[in-house]
Design a protein that fits this description.
The protein has a single domain, classed as Alpha-Beta Complex (2-enoyl-CoA Hydratase, Chain A, domain 1). Helices cover 39% and strands 12% of the residues. It is built from 11 helices and 7 strands. Pfam families: Carboxyl_trans.
Length: 282
């Protein structure tokens, strides 16, 4: 296939909406949405604050098959409230994962894919959103004892806040170059530490620290793939058959790496961060 033909053949995953992404990953004809928009299950809190709610609360839950395997997909719509997690959307994801656990207990080996385009907790729902994220995290840990839970971060919304912790609990993480992954978002860091410490408007700087390519080179994610539907699906299938790296259980190694920096630390650049995580801080 020529470069031109390949370019015309490729289909951007990032440009798809959450529902389209879930449908594109599952085997053709197996997509079945649970608690879809016609159920009108939306946040009861947003309208009270003058915010128009969305009928599915920005979360799409689908069951289907992935290369013949039973699979549940939870896709977060980054275009609605920055993909933030509220009471309803969070409960949908946690409930889907818990049902997958129940499937496995009943002899149905159901895996899970989380499409993570989220800034973390929805501030308008505060503690309710945090409680929902905690339930998601607990469900991920329980399900991965049976089948893989794979997180996919594709678009520029990235994955931050409590949902970045959920991502870290996944069996595997898959990212594109456009993706970002971090505990605190750039705007939050700039607000708290000042623009001299972290300039949220400096896009090359931000991606050099938290972008998909950097996170993969640092060993914090398992797969790095181009923004192409078929490429992401194929990499996803490969990860399903790969033993989990269990990064969540390697906290002592990461704490040791961070501890090696000492107390007097200047602003690290992308190369220094990569060397730190790779264990080369000499």
């Amino acid at each position: 296939m020529t470069d031109t033909a390949r370019l015309l053949h490729n289909r951007s995953f990032v440009e798809l909406g959450a529902r389209q992404r879930a449908r594109a990953l599952l085997d053709s004809g197996t997509f079945r949405e649970l608690l879809g928009p016609f159920e009108r299950l939306m946040s009861p809190w947003l309208a009270r604050q003058g915010i128009v709610p969305q009928a599915d609360d920005g979360v799409v839950i689908a069951k289907g098959r992935l290369a013949g395997r039973p699979c549940v997909v939870a896709a977060i719509e980054g275009g609605f409230q920055g993909g933030s997690m509220g009471e309803v959307g969070g409960a949908k994801i946690a409930g889907a994962l818990e049902l997958a656990v129940e499937d496995n207990r009943n002899g149905i080996p159901t895996c899970a894919v989380l499409l993570l385009e989220t800034g973390g907790v929805r501030l308008q729902e505060a503690n309710l959103g945090l409680a929902a994220i905690a339930e998601i995290q607990a469900a991920i840990v329980e399900l991965r004892g049976y089948q893989p839970v794979i997180g996919v971060i594709a678009g520029a919304v990235g994955c931050f806040g409590g949902m970045s912790i959920a991502a870290g609990l996944c069996s595997h993480l898959l990212v594109t170059r456009e993706a970002r992954l971090g505990l605190n978002g750039p705007q939050v860091i700039e607000q708290e530490a000042g623009i001299e410490e972290y300039n949220a408007g400096d896009r090359p700087f931000i991606w050099s620290l938290t972008g998909g390519e950097q996170r993969h080179a640092s060993g914090l994610v398992d797969g790095y793939v181009a923004d192409d539907v078929e490429s992401i699906r194929q990499q996803l299938l490969q990860l399903l058959d790969t033993p989990s790296a269990n990064r969540a259980g390697q906290y002592a190694r990461y704490l040791e790496r961070l501890g090696s920096l000492g107390e007097d630390v200047t602003q690290l650049d992308g190369a220094a961060v990569r060397a730190l995580y790779q264990g080369d801080v000499s």
